Amino acid sequence: MIITELIEKKRDGGEMTAEELEFLIGGLVNKEVEDCQMSAFMMAVCCNGMTDREISDLTMTMMRSGDTVDLSDLPGVKVDKHSTGGVGDTTTLVTAPLVAACGGTVAKMSGRGLAHSGGTLDKLESVPGINVEQPLERFEQIVRETGIAVIGQSANLVPADKKMYALRDVTGTVKSIPLIASSIMSKKLAAGADAIVLDVKTGNGAFMNTLDDSRKLARQMVRIGDDLGRKTVAIITDMNRPLGMAIGNGLEMKEAIDVLQGRIPLTDPLVSVCLTLGAQMLLLSKLAETREEAEEKLRDALVSGRGFMKLKSMLKAMGGDTRYVDEPELLVRTSRIIPVYPVKSGYIGSIDAKQLGLAACLLGAGRLRKEDSVDPAVGILMNKRYGDRISENEPYAYLYVNNEDRLDEALALIEAAVSISDEAPAEMPLVYDIIE
Ligand code: URA
Ligand code: CA
């Protein structure tokens, strides 16, 4: 096969065969295909799309580009969840322990923050001592003993995606349903779960901004899962505002602990989305027959404190200092806490979640460049939600700050991201759709 002919074929709207995709992906990994050639091919995919068959074949080829994890020695249905990325969105740290407390087996590989969105690994690392890079044998052992482990992706899992993602990041080819769907699903499939629950975010803080695009992405990923023999469900949830109140790694870990210790009401949006996600995980694990039964089990695991104990056991097994779990205030100690006041009284009329995520990055909660390190304690703690009434002398947020170098910039972003309206804004759903 001749690489330029494959690029030209996709450029002209052709459909790639499985062999052609293998040639491209294999060539990328062993450096026979050059970065510029892969970039040109991916731009052609962005412009011309791919058929369902091509997307499944691409995903399979990417999955096989490196190690795959075999969890078949572990008993029961191994269930994973994945979010397409959001702001103030600490669902894994709440949902995974609750599912494990209901008898589920959660063996999960997570990522770091990407652009403005947070990542579970960075949140886990807010607990001193924790090691997220566990060898696979230890990963399996922790799952066997506690029912739950959330670790970093092993170095050689889907190397094709690492290269493709880095190229997409700098060639304007991130936003493509075939490329996003194959990127996410190749990693989920390689990580070995039998069943996958996808949380597809939609709105101003998500990678897919419209409901229509989010639905297309969700359907595509569910189809890939089905084609490749893993039970997959996608839930489309709102990201036109942060889901929880905390944006920042220690702040989000503390929020998850507060939820699991019953300090946050069950009607809270974060808890509500976690129950929806967890219910699908229990259904796919055959640990409940109906959504109502599944949610009841999860609420019971929360209220009884069994979910909290699961989180604590997992953090301890990974080397985390459990004093920080018992006293989560220790996670968020900063030199200053700065209140942010509205310009006038009114309602929180809209929130640009992406801009809040970027502001948290400026404070040091996320990376602006690949090599940046994060400060686990800093970030933004919202004091008001979308739709809440607020008066001039009430802060709508608190900034947890250590390094003040870019504080003014962060403040300007936050002030532009939160608008105050005279009338209460329309209610927005939290969950738009469940796609099976
Ligand atoms: N997350 C991924 O892992 N890949 C994408 O392409 C987008 C979000
Ligand atoms: Ca993510």
Task: Tell me what you see in this structure.
It is a single chain. With 436 residues, the chain is an alpha/beta fold. Helix content is 45%, strand content 15%. It has helices at 3-11, 18-29, 35-48, 52-63, 91-101, 120-124, 136-146, 159-171, 177-190, 211-227, 249-260, 269-284, 291-303, 306-317, 323-326, 353-363, 407-417, and strands at residues 78-83, 105-110, 148-152, 195-202, 231-238, 246-247, 336-340, 346-351, 379-382, 389-390, 397-401, 418-421, 431-435. The strands form three sheets. Strands 3-2-1-4-5-13 form a six-stranded mixed sheet, with helices on both faces. A four-stranded antiparallel sheet has the order 6-9-11-7, sandwiched between helices. Strand 1 (78-83), helix 5 (91-101) and strand 2 form a beta-alpha-beta unit. Helix 3 (35-48) packs across helix 8. It starts with a helix and ends with a strand. The model has no long low-confidence stretch (mean pLDDT 95). The protein binds uracil (URA) and calcium ion. Uracil is lined by residues 84-85, 179-180, 183-184, 207.
